[in-house]
Structures are given as C-alpha cells and as structure tokens.
From TrEMBL:
Pfam families: B12-binding (PF02310), OAM_dimer (PF16554). Transmembrane segments: none annotated. PROSITE patterns: B12_BINDING. This is Beta-lysine 5,6-aminomutase beta subunit. It comes from Kribbella orskensis. InterPro entries: Cobalamin-bd, Cobalamin-bd_sf, KamE_N, KamE_N_sf.
Length: 252
C-alpha cells in the first residue's frame, strides 16, 4: 500500500502530535492561541496535552489531534547509500592497498558550536551505536580538534596534517548557524586548495539531510543516527575506490 494515513490510537485515525513554542506568557489565552495555530495547520480538533512556561514571555506546547492529509510513499524521494558498508578490517585493507599510507581525517565543531558529542561519537575510539570510532581503524590518522574551531584554523591544521578528509559537526542551529558555518567552511577550503588537491569535505548534524550537500558546498552530508562505520566506508569509497590517489592531494 502506497497511500497511508498517520496512526495514533487506531489504524488510520490520522492522529498526530507536534510541538512548538509561542512568544506569549503561559495562560489560558496562550493555550487558545496554540489550538488556533494547530487548527490552521489542519489539525482539527486539537488538544493541548502539554504546556510549559519558557521564562516569563514564552510557552512551549505539545498538541495532539487528527489531520486529513494522506501520504503517498511511492512519491517519497530519498538518497540511497551508494557505497558498500565495510568492516574495520576491510576498510583498513582497502586503505593499505589503495593508498599505501594512512588516510588522514581532521574533524571539528566549527564556529561557536561547543557540542562535541556528535564529532566525538564518530571519531573517538569509544564510537557510537555499538561501533568503534575512527580512531579504532589502524589505517586512519584521526585529528579531532574539538569545539569552537575557527574556519581559518581548521584550514591551517588541514594543510599542516595533509588531510585527506575534513569532518565538520554542527549541532547549534539557531538562525541557521549550522548552514552558514558549513558554507563558510566549504568556501574557505575551495579558496585555499585547487580542486584536485582539496580534501573531501563532510558535514554532519541532526538538522542536516543528505540532499543538502550541494547547497552547503560539501561532498557528503550525514544526518542523525549516522555510525562511524558508515563514515569510514564512505571515506574509503571516496578516497580509495573512486579516486586515484595523486601526490597533489597530499602536497597542497
């Protein structure tokens, strides 16, 4: 079946739950405003199931109710993984045979972003979701610069380390900071390197989607739930399988 309706209490009842914040103090009028908004979004009748003050002038809401919209799953567009998943052993072997040296990866949270959970989950040996991080791979040289790294510093360290790949994590999204920071990063690397010498640029974060790579100017985007093995497999595919290694990539 390609046409589906949201499920809440019973199959096909169309019930959905959503949350949002309104810039109003928490009172009965605020709850009425939340219901009005939900009604305008197609949820009718809407029920406020949670309301919490966020300081004196804001209120956070969770509302619940039915919608009439249907979803056609046959028209959903997704970006499928176009590279094979490799075990750490196979990834190490591919790098050793293909590059005949270690593959260097430099990672950081750029701008004012101080949230290192994402970049650490991918790069640190403890890893994520039962998988070891990139530090576990013998044929990877991993340089984790941590939080709040300025873009010029990232470029400088990338050149000093002769990086093959750059991993940038962005969690802070207020005022599209994650988009602006990543665009600044990609522009800086394209200015600092010739195209054939530029490191592979990878961005990751919970508010990114794979389809944003072109908009951001990076080679690949990883969203929420990405595991270290997926990132390692992509790097092997991009830098070993699909590209012939040339001295210019290391000497730039």
């Amino acid at each position: 079946m390609s046409i589906v309706r949201p499920y809440g209490d019973t199959t096909g009842d169309g019930m959905v739950q959503m949350s949002f914040t309104l810039p109003v103090p928490h009172d009965k009028r605020a709850e009425g405003a939340a219901i009005q908004l939900a009604n305008k979004m197609g949820m009718d009748p809407a029920l406020v199931v949670h309301a919490k003050p966020m300081g004196p002038d804001f209120t956070f809401f969770v509302v619940y109710g039915p919608v009439n919209h249907l979803v056609d799953t046959s028209k959903v567009e997704v970006i499928e993984r176009d590279y094979p998943l490799l075990s750490p052993k196979d990834a190490n072997l591919a790098i050793r045979k293909g590059l005949r040296r270690r593959l260097t990866v430099v990672g950081a949270c750029i701008g004012t972003d101080a949230h290192t959970v994402g970049i650490d989950a991918i790069m640190n040996i403890k890893g994520f979701a039962g998988e070891k991080g990139l530090e576990y791979y013998r044929e990877l040289k991993v340089v984790n610069l941590g939080a709040q790294v300025a873009v010029p510093e990232l470029v400088r360290r990338a050149k000093a380390e002769k990086a093959d790949a750059i991993l940038v994590s962005q969690v802070v999204t207020q005022r599209e900071a994650h988009v602006l920071n990543t665009k600044e990063m990609s522009a800086a690397f394209r200015e600092a390197y010739s195209e054939d010498a530029r490191p592979v640029l990878v961005a990751g974060g919970p508010r990114f989607t794979e389809a944003m790579a072109g908009e951001l100017g990076v080679d690949r985007v990883f969203g929420r739930g990405t595991t270290p093995g997926e990132v390692a497999s992509y790097l092997v595919d991009a830098l070993v399988t699909r590209r012939k290694h040339t001295p210019s990539r290391r000497s730039a």
